[in-house]
Amino acid sequence: MHVPAEQPFVPVVLGGDIGTYSLAREFHEAYGAVTVVVPAGPNGVIEHSVAIDLRPSGSVTDDETLLQHLLTLGADLTKEQQRPLLLLGSLDLHVTFLARHKNRLEPLFTVPYPDEATILAGALKQNFAELCKELDLPTPFTLVIDPAGGTAQLPEDLPFPLIGKPADSSAWVGASFPGKRKVHTLADRAELDELLDHLAGSGYTEPFILQERIPGGDEQMRLCTFFADHTGAVTFAGYGEVVVEEHSPKVLGNSAGIVTAQNPDVVEAGRKLLQRLGWRGFAMVDAKLDPRDGVVKLFELNPRLGRNHYYLTAAGMNPVRFYVRDFLGTEYDDVRLPEALAPRDAAGTQVLAVEHLYTVLPHGLLKRFARGEVGERARALLKARKVSDPLRYRAERHPRRLAYIAMAHLNHRRKFKAFPPA
């Protein structure tokens, strides 16, 4: 699918995952727009879509190669008529790249992210921990270590089990060692010492985070997506409770089912964070309910819409409308966002109020692993048919796309059989 010459603005998205596809679907649902998607190369989740014009770059890790590709692309998309180009990223590394090169990109593109310093002040995990401490927000015990510093830097009284994760997820992409994971769970000192040995020769040189592992399963994970407008006001928040996560090593921790809910304390905490940072645009906070004290503890801030942000659209609040209205202008979207779906709280933030189930899993698989009170609500929403899958879009008709969706669901069954939730 090519972008129509008469399309009044063009979304351009770096990436190639389900979050990328969700953005393209959301622009298509809201405006009938075709999105230009820029992956390193094609893959099934973004191919053969009615909503996507694929323009692979060959690389998304070499700054100059990607930058030149985007500048050439921008010139091509505006050669027949001048029109806004809204440039988005699907991963942290995309967002930091866009922020770093804003000055070179902005003659052609609108880049709806804060400057790089603001992003790093919130998204680097060691900075996030310090920010939570400064604002007196609940967060687990966190220790920042040097990946090449060995065991001498560790205190004796670490609260095992621990979670080990990179402070800089962009730099983690290039790290290589046996058993590498997105997130490491460390049961004792021996496992931590082994991981430190691997890190020393992995090529990863940024700080590494050790964080107390809060007890409990997937159903205690929480997330909240926020939007801050051009004045710095946090105008929207959408809170969700995870039903189940993926547990295969490469995608460990990715949400596979989310029920929308409400939590004023988390909304207020996220609002304080974004206002302290002077944020603009979208951000998402990851958190977990601590069963020991009933408090939701904040883990990290993602400087973008999350991989599974379609949970917002599923509940009726399509986030791309915030982008278009605030960054491009109401001449491109004058539809008022529905107050009935997201009434304003005392601070003036629209807070999503509709309960809905988002899932990428076959429904039977989700029901099998849905646990606790969140799982019960997920089952009730399934029964009421208040459920959405971002890949199931009625506008898609290409046979290869339909085959991909069937294969994706089969692959989920295989992964959950091999790596079931504990």
Describe this structure in words.
The chain is an alpha/beta fold. The protein folds into 3 domains: 10-111, Rossmann fold (3-Layer(aba) Sandwich), CATH 3.40.50.20; 141-212, Dna Ligase, domain 1 (2-Layer Sandwich), CATH 3.30.1490; 218-418, 2-Layer Sandwich (D-amino Acid Aminotransferase, Chain A, domain 1), CATH 3.30.470.20. It is 34% helix and 20% strand. It has 14 helices and 16 strands. The strands form 3 sheets. Strands 9, 10, 11, 12, 13, 14, 15 and 16 form an 8-stranded mixed beta sheet that branches. Strands 3-2-1-4 form a 4-stranded parallel beta sheet. Strand 1 (10-14), helix 1 (18-31) and strand 2 form a beta-alpha-beta unit. Helix 3 (92-100) runs antiparallel to helix 5 (116-123). The model has no long low-confidence stretch (mean pLDDT 94).
Defining traits:
D-amino Acid Aminotransferase, Chain A, domain 1; alpha/beta; 422 residues; Rossmann fold; 14 helices; eight-stranded mixed beta sheet; Dna Ligase, domain 1
CATH superfamily caption of the largest domain: ATP-grasp fold, B domain
- For the report, how would you describe the main beta sheet? 8 strands, mixed
Low-pLDDT stretches are none
CATH fold descriptor of the largest domain: D-amino Acid Aminotransferase, Chain A, domain 1
What would the average pLDDT be, to the nearest integer? Answer: 94
The shape is globular
Number of strands: 16
Distance between the amino and carboxyl termini: 42 Å
